[in-house]
User: What shape does this take?
Amino acid sequence: MKKLALAIVMAALVVGLFATVASADATETVYAYEGNPANAVVWRIGEGWIEDCNKTPREQQVVVRANVAQWAKWSVDFSGWEWFVKKPGDYYADCVAGHVQSNGQVTIQFVGFGDLAATEGTNVVNGASGTIETFFAALPGSGEPELDDWVKVTELTSCTLPDSMQLHEGYAFKLWNRIIVLDCNSPGTYEDVASLILTLDNQVDWIDEETGNFIPPALPFD
Assistant: This one.
């Protein structure tokens, strides 16, 4: 029994060794003149050949294939803004500059956006307004928004940027914010905390959507 158990253990070790060698032999080290080598994996595919004869000419097919995932970059120079208002009025400012770039269609969802609401500790008397009406406008360049450019914050749902060369090169924009402070807004702090969700609409199935990492064993392809 001891000899049989030892033989089984040895066999398992040999199988594991061959599996390790086969796995290591499947990929090559990636180098990069530009970019991070960890962002690419290369596999050897197909069967090789050995020919030793006097035939001429002779032909063998070589296949080189690249599978590209969708990626996106987005950035803003500030993650929020804070108004200090002495007296009622209709105010606006270009508070945030942003940039979105991708090699495929993306969708940006606006979650939890609403008018600014009085926070705890702000005393809103009967008949006064506990909210401040809020608007946004996103514009390229340095121009100021027209009245038609403003979108009521409660109407924000999602924005889809279709695949285009402009998206490949990147959209630069200014995000404008507008608030209307009324006579009936009591003194205190009004706030809204919301989220932006960026979705890559054409992501491949060999990328883990939550981590952005390769999904093993996604490669090699036949």
